[in-house]
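User: I've been trying to design a sequence by hand for this structure and keep getting stuck. Would you show me what you'd pick, starting by listing the structure so we're on the same page?

Assistant: Good idea, let's start from the same input. This is the structure you sent:
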């Protein structure tokens, strides 16, 4: 007979303890230039894939793991180390994208591309404006 899970362990394993959309957006706004355009585009592509009802649960778990790893400041190589701090985060994003690539749609890529352009201050003449950054509190 299985023993019930310790409530403290259950709390620590909850997804929102490691990943949340507002925390991701805050990280991208603050460190986007340091992360670089490709890493931001990859993170946002995964973000939109995560929100898609067609993405299976196991793939969402992979995405949450990678985005959560990006959000955490204390990981394998701490993000505060100049020049190397986000290298492991980039590797986690690429590995996740490769793992769930089958479920990434053109719409996910388009939204991510538009939001990346906005984050980096690119001119977006003629854009619809519907895929902008969500507000954070």
């Amino acid at each position: 007979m299985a023993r019930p899970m310790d409530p403290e362990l259950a709390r620590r394993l909850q997804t929102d303890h490691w990943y949340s959309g507002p925390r991701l957006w805050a990280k991208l706004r603050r460190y986007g230039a340091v992360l670089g355009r490709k890493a931001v585009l990859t993170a946002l592509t995964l973000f939109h894939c995560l929100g898609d009802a067609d993405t299976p649960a196991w793939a969402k778990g992979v995405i949450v793991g990678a985005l959560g790893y990006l959000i955490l400041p204390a990981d394998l190589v701490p993000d505060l180390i100049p020049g190397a701090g986000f290298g492991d985060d980039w590797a986690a994003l690429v590995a996740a994208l490769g793992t769930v690539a089958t479920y990434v749609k053109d719409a996910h890529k388009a939204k991510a591309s538009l939001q990346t352009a906005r984050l980096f201050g690119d001119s977006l003449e003629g854009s619809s404006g519907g895929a902008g950054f969500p507000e954070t509190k």
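That's my pick for every position. To get oriented when you compare it with your attempt: The first helix runs from residue 7 to 12. The chain is about 60% helix and 0% strand.
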